[in-house]
């Protein structure tokens, strides 16, 4: 409707414009003429032009009106088409909704049927299980136990075979390369030294010297013990006396001081204090020089002076009879060789090897394990965080870096090689007994013998209790338990033997 009104208004506007133009033109011409004339060609031409404009305006208005009517019809047709499509879609949706509702009803019905059948099956299953239990005389749990035992028995041989195959494969793959690296490292630093021990025996020229050392009413020996911090043991052994002290440095100071006093012959309290003080300074210089020599031979630079002084104490300290100074130098050389061959950081490996026992230098002064004390020393003097972590994990199975593992391996090689260490008879017997007790603690083991100085455990089993398939797993279990509970140098081989003998006598 608005389009039709617009068309009419446009027509009227065109007529007005045309008429106004003609009138304006006529008036203009009449003013300019002195005597108006009706038959003037210009007036006639203006009137004609005005009529043409009116006709054109009417044509334009008609065209606009027709276009508006066509557009209105198109809009009505489109609206009708959209309405028809919407009606069709609504009908389709109604049909689909009906189908879905029908499916939901079918699913609900099917679910109820399945639930009823499931309950029926469970009921039948329970009845059958009860009948089987009554017939077999076993409960459900007992039957399951029997089945599991049967399966385990059948699989035991496979498990043992898999363990053996895995161990063999790993050993073959790793041993070749490891043997090459370790042999090269050991050959390059092999030494023939016999482990030193910090002696506490002082030789005397004669037994009369014992009386002079004791002094009048024991004043000389008391002054000596107070100045050195050691205990002097004088017994009936001719030509010697013993010095007893848990601190190897103080024991060395006492030994050197007493040798000087015996040689000098002037043994009295004032002289004792003078000699002991001088000897302490001499020993400190010797230890400082020993620390510098150790760091120099290890090829390590920029080590704090305090740590060098602590390393010098290794000169007078032993572990299982092995001199710590020589042991540390050997560990550094082994670690350097192995790190160089496998492409690890040689400098870090050498530093960890040099400091792996640094805590032992203060164990007689501060409580705690040498590992914890070594970590505290490294932190106190600002060593690198990787060194601190490596020292903390030196006796663990999980190493923070390959260099820490190399240092631990080098330490084990140096301590385990023949002739490097010794242990007391009591410790040896205790270790041997522990190995045998662990082996005999397993079911089916008849006897166990620790042979070759505790480097092999030979285990004899009862054939009726342990099958051939069981012995591989038994050997693995015994070795694992020994590794967890016993401290030993090198490695311990577990050899499990199962044999059946038949004996008869011919008469």
Automatic annotation (TrEMBL):
This is Ribonuclease Y. GO terms for molecular function: hydrolase activity; RNA binding; RNA endonuclease activity. Residues 324-416 form the HD domain. The lineage of its organism: Bacteria, Candidatus Woykeibacteriota. InterPro entries: HD/PDEase_dom, HD_domain, HDIG_dom, KH_dom, KH_dom_type_1, KH_dom_type_1_sf, Ribonuclease_Y, RNase_Y_N. Pfam families: HD, KH_1, RNase_Y_N. It comes from the Bacteria. Residues 58-85 form a coiled coil. PANTHER family: RIBONUCLEASE Y. Endoribonuclease that initiates mRNA decay. SUPFAM superfamilies: Eukaryotic type KH-domain (KH-domain type I), HD-domain/PDEase-like. Gene3D superfamilies: Hypothetical protein af1432, K Homology domain, type 1. Belongs to the RNase Y family. Keywords: Coiled coil, Endonuclease, Hydrolase, Nuclease, RNA-binding. Its EC number is 3.1.-.-. One of its GO terms (cellular component) is plasma membrane. It is an enzyme of class 3 (hydrolase). One of its GO terms (biological process) is mRNA catabolic process.
